[in-house]
Amino acid sequence: MSQEKTVSEAINFRRSVRVYDAEKEIDKTIVKKCINQASFAPNSSNMQLWEFYHITSKDIIDKIAPLCFNQNAAKTAKQLVVFVVRKDLWRKRAQANLNFLDKNFGANNSKSEQSNREKVARNYYGKIIPFAYADFLGILGFFKYLMILVIGLFKPIYREVRKSDMRIVAHKTCGLAAQNFMISMAAEGYDTCPMEGSDSWRIKNLLGLPFGAEINMIISCGIRTEKGVYGERFRIPFEEVYKEV
After folding, report:
1. Secondary element (H or E) of residue 169
2. Which end of the chain is less packed: N or C, by CB atoms within 10 Å?
3. CB 73 within 8 Å of CB 191
4. What's the confidence (pLDDT) of residue 216?
5. Which CATH architecture has domain 7-88+166-241?
6. What angle do CA 77, 69, 230 make, to 5 degrees?
7. Is 225 left (phi over 0), alpha (psi -120 to 50) or beta?
8. Could you tell me if 63 and 206 are in contact, meaning their C-beta atoms sit under 8 angstroms apart?
9. Taking the model in full, what pTM does it have?
10. How many other β-carbons are positioned within 10 Å of the β-carbon of residue 112?
11. Residue 2 — pLDDT band, cuts 50, 70, 90?
12. Measured between alpha carbons, how far is 108 from 116 in angstroms, rounded to an integer?
């Protein structure tokens, strides 16, 4: 294994690899380290509404490949990582943040003893997060949206409070973790391919995921063959997408 790459080197090395070398194995402990680095990705409100399923069993990979429509990236993968959104765990993760505040500030401080920073944090996880995430069949989200529309007439306010909005937030967060993982893998000289094309319901059932879990993407892992990258990298000219204001 070559020396670990810099961030810039890893970004340039990373390609979506569709065919992996059947003769070259990858170390699952290194992949696990890269998954751990994925968990340090920035995420909305530090809620960490994700789970990472590291698939090392050849039997499970062979079962997942047809559910990814037999893409070469799935069929030839040495390992898979399934990035799962757990928006349904928002109460548990909000409480974990409150527990962290207890550890850092003390659990039994009266309001008069709390610093402004502690008051803001406890209010955020105790009141604002429940306001944003709580919903019932989309009905509560609709009324929250109407309320925000009225308040927004008079001052700037956060507007993404519907169930569909918070789902997008959770998926964006999980996508950031997936990118951390792929860059970390590239730094180790390992290849990956993010796959969105799959029968997510059947894969959820195969992995025993609960109803509230959603698959964000499946990332295959291995070592590229000469034909593993389908052509040169194409990007829209940077000047066309870069806007300085």
Report:
1. helix 163-187
2. C
3. no
4. 98
5. 3-Layer(aba) Sandwich (3.40)
6. 60
7. beta
8. yes
9. 0.93
10. 5
11. low
12. 16
